[in-house]
Amino acid sequence: MPDGDSKWDAFITICAVLTSTGHKDRAIDIAISMLNGYKQCVALQRISMALARNGDIEGAVAVAMSIRNLHERWGAFHGIAMAYVRVGDIETAIDVALSIHDAYLQGSVLQRMAEVLARHGDADRAIAVARLISHEL
């Protein structure tokens, strides 16, 4: 595997494209073989988000759980939850958010969901989601 950032970034893009075109296993193999730990986490995040966009939420959650970098893991779960919010499946989005074991990350995802719902005029659901936040952000 290459050492330069632009090369790592190329591999990250390749992982996302492979996932979007139905080659998830190959994308995961490439991501796992990346020696740069941070870039590996970014690649796994992109794979997770591509799976969520393709409707494979179970796969997206499984990949997200394997991300070691907390910030990148949050980004993956955020992407998965927002994919559900976009299609109006708020209950599943909440389930995804509540599956996050880190209270701070969970609260951050729920906060973002509440903000999106409020901006789209769904104040009651936004309030209900905000009430689920158990950690001070």
Overall pLDDT:
89
Helix fraction by DSSP (H/I, runs of at least 4)? over 70%
Number of helices: 8
Shape: elongated
Low-confidence stretches: none
Strand-pairing-aware structural class: mainly alpha
Largest sheet: none
State the separation between the terminal residues, measured CA to CA: 38 Å
SSE arrangement, N to C: HHHHHHHH
Q: C-alpha Rg, in Å?
A: 16 Å
Number of strands: 0
Share in β-strands: under 5%
What is the topological layout?
Blueprint: H1 5-20, H2 24-33, H3 37-53, H4 57-65, H5 70-86, H6 90-98, H7 103-119, H8 123-131
Task: Outline the structure in words.
The protein has eight helices and no strands. The model has no long low-confidence stretch (mean pLDDT 89). It is 76% helix and 0% strand. The radius of gyration is 16 Å and the shape is elongated.
